Amino acid sequence: MINYKLLTPGPLTTTDSVKREMMVDHCTWDNDYKSITQKIRGELLELAHVSPEEYTAVLMQGSGTFGVESAITSSVGKDGKLLILSNGAYGERQEDIAKHAGLKYRIQHFHYNEVPDAAVVKQILDEDKEITHVSMVHSETTSGILNDIEAVGKVVKAAGKVYIVDAMSSFAGVEIPVADWGIDFIISSANKCIQGVPGFSFIICRLDELKKCEGKAVSLSLDLYDQWKGMFDGKWRFTSPTHVVLAFAKALEEMKEEGGIPARSARYRRTNALLISEMEKLGYKTYIDKAHQGPIITTFFYPENCNYTFKEMYEFIKARGYAIYPGKVTEADTFRIGNIGEIYEEDIHKLIDIYREFLTQKGQL
Ligand SMILES: *Cc1c(COP(=O)(O)O)cnc(C)c1O
């Protein structure tokens, strides 16, 4: 099997020691296992800068979307109305979730390279009194833009609404003071910035809002309230992804060894800045401007005189040890390169050398 590193936003490149944790078959009912789950839940609250008196962390089987769907469809209810702020595919997915669940909702679209404007949100909340919940994405992985969830949170809280944030690709890679920013439900998953493997998502919930979710869920398995009730002593309601949980506990430990969020976010910012400056030297331009470019993943335009396809570029790079990502913005021809996971400046330098070789072969340098 060829080994290559993932320059994708999850699953991402994990350490060998995280992967090795999965060599154990663990039973789920005993205190050892339950205490691992409880420890994870406690540490997630620390990463979110919230107290266990005010917040709780609920783990949910499935990928990140399961967590977003769980939070939305367990909290809005029949009498509520959700305002979705969208500037990418993951915002649009929230609309899909609301539609499938038959929830009352309204979606406000923003351009893919613009952050949702808090003033526009305020105006909508002033005129549409039916709205009870507001949701948005923090790091829109579609483009790499980092949305201003703090500014929007102020407006949402001033209006007394419930605030749901999909921080899938940013949580623990960027500091998020969850309580200070007025977030009631924030969602991420095991295979993003904490650098575990895929298999579950987690939702950090303000307790008084979570308690209001009783009986509101439209799905059995994604019922956030029931999952929380069932998990009071660390027991998962249905079969837990044991191997993934063990790997995640190890990933949390390694995150602490690295120096926690401050060190990890500094590494991501460094590798991201290096990637962008080196790619610019090769003639590639970024889709998002510097003011809003996040440190997780970057969307690049193809150059004007481009004479190669994504597939050609992808295969060339993969054969030399790295996997990049196709573009996802709808209006422009782009590709993406992520820099989260076990990726260091040395990897960026290697990638740039591969690009130089590729572009030379194509007569573009
Ligand atoms: C990864 C991601 C998700 C979840 O996607 P899954 O494929 O379900 O894991 C949701 N939102 C954002 C912003 C993401 O980056």
Order of helices and strands: EHHEHEHEHEEEHEEEHHHHEHEEEH
CATH topology of the largest domain: Aspartate Aminotransferase, domain 2
Structural class: alpha/beta
Reported for the largest beta sheet, the result is:
7 strands, mixed
Using the CA coordinates, give the radius of gyration: 21 Å
Number of domains: 2
Specify the CATH homologous superfamily of the largest domain: Type I PLP-dependent aspartate aminotransferase-like (Major domain)
Q: What small ligands are held by the chains?
A: pyridoxal-5'-phosphate
Structure, described:
The chain has 365 residues and is α/β, with parallel strands linked by helices. It has two domains: 5-9 and 260-361, Aspartate Aminotransferase, domain 1 (Alpha-Beta Complex), CATH 3.90.1150.10; 16-256, Type I PLP-dependent aspartate aminotransferase-like (Major domain) (Aspartate Aminotransferase, domain 2, 3-Layer(aba) Sandwich), CATH 3.40.640. It contains twelve helices and 14 strands. The protein has helices spanning 16-20, 31-47, 64-75, 89-101, 118-127, 149-158, 207-211, 224-230, 242-258, 260-281, 310-318, 345-361, and strands at 5-6, 55-61, 81-86, 104-109, 133-137, 139-140, 145-146, 162-166, 185-189, 200-206, 297-301, 322-323, 325-326, 334-338. It is globular and about 65 Å long. It binds pyridoxal-5'-phosphate. Residues 9-10, 63-65, 68, 90, 137, 141, 166, 168-169, 189 line the site of pyridoxal-5'-phosphate.
